[in-house]
């Protein structure tokens, strides 16, 4: 029986799931773009990002070559794998509940 | 809410966020640059010739139509080959969800523009109005991609619409230009200022803002 206990708690949290989803769509996301897209406060967003960086699911990069310094984030291989596993589990839960 | 409903809800949120966040650059910078160079090359002579001869046409309406369709074909071919290369790099099919969404968005204005302008050139012999229709419908097609296109492409769309409307008003208000013997000169000038110059600015802006390693993808 597949259930929510098997889901990765780090990703399962709503805001972190949204961050992982956005990072899965493009190579790099700037902090400001994530903030705009998700409508989170600076403090809230940075806390979730730090949690994901600590888990090595995402990588933080700092770019000061342009006119304005930018902090960007991208999924690591481990993060991409964890995200895919999470989606697979969600799909399995849905499939298991459907009558054959 | 049951576990399966909660899982389904999470999957819906993931899908909706992914669709919303996916960026698809349907017009690559090299294709825009090629379009710009060809547009300027094809437009300069008829404009200069019309200015020197008080509106004489440098070539026929059919040649005008064939030349611009040839430019369209060349740019489309280059654009498609670059999109195919980028899709291969990302390990995605050329006709990805992004491309299908883009095609659905741009088709209505491009079909309307193509049919109206074709009719204007072939049966009504009005090249300038045809040029305005092309410019405005192309601009509207780019704006139609605003939900998933990069901002630069949407800005290009607005630039086309604004330039098209301003040039139309300038042309409509100027009896001398409207009453020239032929309208190949004004039509070519409209095409040069929009498809030539605006694409040039777009290509330069994209190249300037793209890191070296990603220029192919731009």
Outline the structure in words.
The complex is a heterodimer of chains A (100) and B (218). Chain A has one domain: Arc Repressor Mutant, subunit A (Orthogonal Bundle). Chain A has helices at residues 9-12, 14-25, 31-38, 42-54, 77-97; strands at residues 29-30, 58-63, 70-75. Helices cover 58% and strands 14% of the residues of chain A. The mean pLDDT of chain A is 87. In chain A, a hairpin with a 6-residue loop joins β2 (58-63) and β3. Chain A is built from 5 helices and 3 strands, in the order ααβααββα. Chain A has 100 residues and is α+β, with helices and mostly antiparallel strands. Helices cover 77% and strands 0% of the residues of chain B. Chain B is elongated. The chains are: A alpha+beta (100), B mainly alpha (218). At the A-B interface, α2 and α5 of A face α1 of B.
- The mean pLDDT of chain A is 87
What does the largest sheet of chain A look like?
3 strands, antiparallel
Distance between the termini of chain A: 15 Å
Mean pLDDT of chain B: 89
What is the total tally of β strands of chain B? 0
Pick out its properties.
heterodimer; A: about 100 residues; alpha+beta; Arc Repressor Mutant, subunit A; three-stranded antiparallel beta sheet; 3 strands; about 60% helix; elongated; B: about 220 residues; mainly alpha; about 0% strand
In short:
With 100 residues, chain A is of the alpha+beta class. Chain A has helices at residues 9-12, 14-25, 31-38, 42-54, 77-97; strands spanning 29-30, 58-63, 70-75. Chain B is built from 8 helices and no strands.
Write the layout of secondary structure elements.
The complex is a heterodimer of chains A (100) and B (218).
Chain A: H1 9-12, H2 14-25, E1 29-30, H3 31-38, H4 42-54, E2 58-63, E3 70-75, H5 77-97
Antiparallel strand pairs in A: 1-3, 2-3
Chain B: H1 3-21, H2 29-52, H3 61-89, H4 97-122, H5 127-143, H6 151-172, H7 175-178, H8 184-209
Helix pairs in contact in B: 2-3, 2-8, 4-5, 5-6, 5-8, 6-8
């Amino acid at each position: 029986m597949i259930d929510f206990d098997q889901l990765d708690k780090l990703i399962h949290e709503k805001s972190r799931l949204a961050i992982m989803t956005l990072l899965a769509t493009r190579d790099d996301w700037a902090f400001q773009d994530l903030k705009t897209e998700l409508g989170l406060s600076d403090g809230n967003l940075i806390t979730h990002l730090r949690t994901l960086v600590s888990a090595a699911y995402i990588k933080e990069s700092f770019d000061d070559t342009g006119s304005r310094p930018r902090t960007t984030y991208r999924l690591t291989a481990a993060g991409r794998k964890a995200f895919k596993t999470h989606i697979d589990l969600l799909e399995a839960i849905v499939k298991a509940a459907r009558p054959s | 809410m049951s576990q399966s409903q909660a899982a389904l809800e999470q999957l819906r949120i993931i899908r909706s966020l992914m669709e919303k966040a996916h960026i698809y650059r349907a017009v690559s910078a090299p294709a825009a640059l090629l379009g710009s160079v060809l547009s300027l090359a094809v437009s300069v002579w008829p404009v200069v010739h019309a200015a020197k001869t008080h509106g004489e046409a440098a070539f026929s309406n059919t040649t005008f139509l064939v030349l611009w369709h040839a430019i369209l074909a060349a740019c489309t071919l280059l654009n498609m080959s670059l999109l195919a290369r980028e899709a291969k790099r990302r390990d995605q099919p050329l006709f990805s969800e992004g491309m299908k969404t883009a095609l659905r968005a741009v088709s209505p204005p491009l079909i309307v523009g193509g049919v109206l302008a074709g009719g204007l050139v072939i049966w009504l012999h009005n090249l300038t109005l045809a040029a305005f229709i092309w410019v405005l419908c192309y601009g509207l097609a780019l704006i139609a991609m605003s939900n998933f296109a990069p901002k630069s492409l949407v800005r290009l769309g607005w630039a086309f619409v604004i330039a098209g409307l301003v040039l139309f008003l300038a042309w409509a208000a100027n009896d001398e230009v409207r009453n020239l013997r032929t309208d190949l000169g004004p039509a070519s000038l409209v095409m040069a200022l929009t498809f030539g110059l605006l694409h040039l600015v777009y290509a330069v802006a994209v190249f300037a803002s793209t890191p070296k390693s990603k220029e192919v993808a731009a």
